[in-house]
Structures are given as structure tokens and as C-alpha cells.
Amino acid sequence: WFLLWLQELVASTTISVGQYRINGGFVGGVIIPGLLLTWLALIPFFDNSPHAATGVWFHSSRLRQNIVFTIILIAIICLIFFTYFCRGPNWVFYWPWEAWPDVH
Predict the structure, then answer these.
(1) pTM for the whole thing?
(2) Which residues 6+ apart lie within 8 Å of 95 measured at CB?
(3) Which of 7, 32, 88, 92 has the fewest CB atoms lying closer than 10 Å?
(4) Are 4 and 79 within 8 A, CB to CB?
């Protein structure tokens, strides 16, 4: 279940630009996770928090970092929820209260 957000990114991020089409497997499976991992690796090098903030949770000098982290975390949780409860047979969207068709 914890990788469902990646599956949803792969399934829903196909990009069309004019006559060109970029596969969702590349965008959602390589580009977006790669950018997230690169960002996570670079965060410590751009942390300009004062020494007083060392070892303090949610220090006021880190407000922007905390907000960005929270937004990304909420987006991942929303993708997990959406994928777990709103995808049916053949990866078709269904509301949680909708009945699925008979699949043979």
C-alpha cells in the first residue's frame, strides 16, 4: 500500500505536447521520484537554520521547510487514498460508493 502513490503517478502522468507524447511510466516512475530524491539529498546543504534551532523540533526558523514537507506528505497520502479507494478493475476510476461492473 505504501507504494500505491508511485503507481498512481505512473498511471496518471502521461504528458502530451503537440504530437509528442511522454510516457507516464517515465514521468511518474523516473522523473518525479528522481526529483524528490534529489531534493531530499540536497536539503541538508541548503539548511541555513541558526545553531539555536539544532535539535529543536519545528523551530520557527524552519517554517518554510516544514510547510513544504507537509504539503508533499499530504499529496502522497492523497495519492495513496485515491489509488486504494478509487481504482477498480483495469485501473478505471470509481467512486468508493460506486459498484464495480461484473468482470469475467
Answers:
(1) 0.67
(2) 86
(3) 92
(4) yes
